[in-house]
């Protein structure tokens, strides 16, 4: 993977948010633990970090199947989680290796964010790190039928930008996200080649 982009070789850029533009995994896990604690549950680093790119639904599916062995009150847990995450926004930091790409190409090509996250969290994350104004569109899992690794989020971003999928470059940090980009017919770039967070399990 290379972050080098050549003018004329693409017509639009799409960026994942969590752990691509902004290092958010520890903040999300901390907030999830707040919600789970109300029900006497715990989520370990070893369980969460390899799944950091999943939608909340997919994450809880795995948690119920592999850890709890029974249904959990997802809505209540997510309620506590949302408050805790918003309270910790000030601690978030951009991933400069990727954010700088967006700054360089701002105004030159259309750009969007495509995330498996919840809209309120994604937009708050981008706002607190001063990245939100760089992007023309923000597409999240609730905007489409299926989140990543399905291609829906990225195809919707391309549709909104009025750019053919094959002319889009996608920056991602997860296998699920890269699969979504490839299935959408886009050029997927793995940022793990240039950025390795302290919590990384790979």
Automatic annotation (TrEMBL):
Transmembrane segments: none annotated. GO terms for molecular function: sugar-phosphatase activity. It comes from the Bacteria. Signal peptide: none annotated. It holds the Pfam family Hydrolase. This is Beta-phosphoglucomutase-like phosphatase (HAD superfamily).
